[in-house]
Amino acid sequence: MTLFVDVRNMVRWTAETGPEAIIAGMSRYIEDDFRRWESFDKIARVGSHTPFGVIELMPTSDGETYAFKYVNGHPSNPARGFQTVSAFGALADVSNGYPVFLAEMTLLTALRTAATSAMVARALARPGSRRLALIGAGSQSEFQALGMRAALGIREVAVWDTDPAAMAKLARNLEPLGFDVHVAASGREAVRGADVVTTCTADKARATVLSADWIEPGVHVNAIGGDCPGKTELDPTILLRDDVEVFVEFPPQTRIEGEIQAMPADFPVTELWQVLTGRAPGRTSPSQVTVFDSVGFAIEDLSALRYVRDAVRGTPWVDDIDLVAEPEDPKDLFGMVSAFSPIPS
Ligand code: NAD
Questions:
Q1: Domain definitions of the chain by residue range
Q2: Tens digits of residue pLDDT in 278-291
Q3: CA 317/CA 309 separation, integer angstroms
Q4: What are the CA-CA distances from residue 272 to residues 16, 133, 248 (Å)?
Q5: Does residue 139's CB lie within 6 angstroms of at least one atom of ligand 1?
Q6: Is residue 118 within 8 Å of 147, Cβ to Cβ?
Q7: At the top level of CATH, which class does the domain 2-107+299-327 belong to?
Q8: What CATH code would you report for 126-296?
Q9: What's the average model confidence in pLDDT over 50-72?
Q10: pTM of the full predicted structure?
Q11: Is ligand 1 within 6 A of the CB of residue 294?
């Protein structure tokens, strides 16, 4: 049998455990896995691009457990009543190849992306950070705010989105959770005085949602929305500033999909796993601007799936499903159908 967490159970588990507690715990699982980075098989995800958006497969393995996620990115979806991002994924036992855990990952991707942002902010943001600017108030945004509170204790959020209804929704969701939300009149206003700037917009374009002259010394930029060829969010001159250091997950994937796709192939970046294991410096001064050029990497999904599996095992939030056909005689697969009913010739 394969363990299965469907949408209903993911929602119940998340609501009853609390998304912030999950993001905090999951970020430790992701950090543990980044610390053993060299033990994973790693490839850039496989994308199928169309004018509508992208469908991606994200595999990885540590030699004991294999994981994959199926995820789409369709920025025009909300206007048609669909979400920009939806996903599902699985863990498998490498020793026999059988899937052991299957889960919805639309919610889980929002939790894991916030958990990754939290892990990175813990390592790179200035201590004492108090104010978050959010550019983009869609599906990821509240999770991102919770991630920054889990990592840094931030409660002040300034938000900017081209859609006023999205900003109103964010305020409606975050204020009851104890956040002080300021709905800004522009991106520039949202960013002013922020310690951390999270960009989480969706547009299949080389957009500029963050301009170089808005960025104050010492800011940590958590750029999660530019995650696909032809889809970026930052003014590219930000990356070229002398006071900016760019941090990435897996360079072969980020060079295709991240903000640095606009830069030469040898553009200098620091790999996060090296910072987390002490092999490379993180922030080197309070005035340095740190940019996390986030695209989302398969190891984060493996960590997130591991975290949910460990948390729901033995609870009512998980079901057994019959996913693998298992004949008594492993060579007699046909016997399963012929024994059940006569096969017409
Ligand atoms: P969404 O469609 O729910 O929300 C995006 C929001 O951005 C919308 O409210 C839209 O009005 C706003 N927006 C678009 N252009 C804007 C602009 N120029 N200025 C201000 N606001 C603008 O999408 P989502 O699910 O919240 O995802 C946001 C982005 O994050 C997507 O691009 C998605 O692909 C990406 N993402 C990245 C990761 C990662 O690991 N890096 C994970 C999940 C999602």
A1: 2-107+299-327, 126-296
A2: 999 999 999 999 99
A3: 10
A4: 32, 22, 6
A5: yes
A6: yes
A7: alpha beta
A8: 3.40.50.720
A9: 97
A10: 0.97
A11: yes
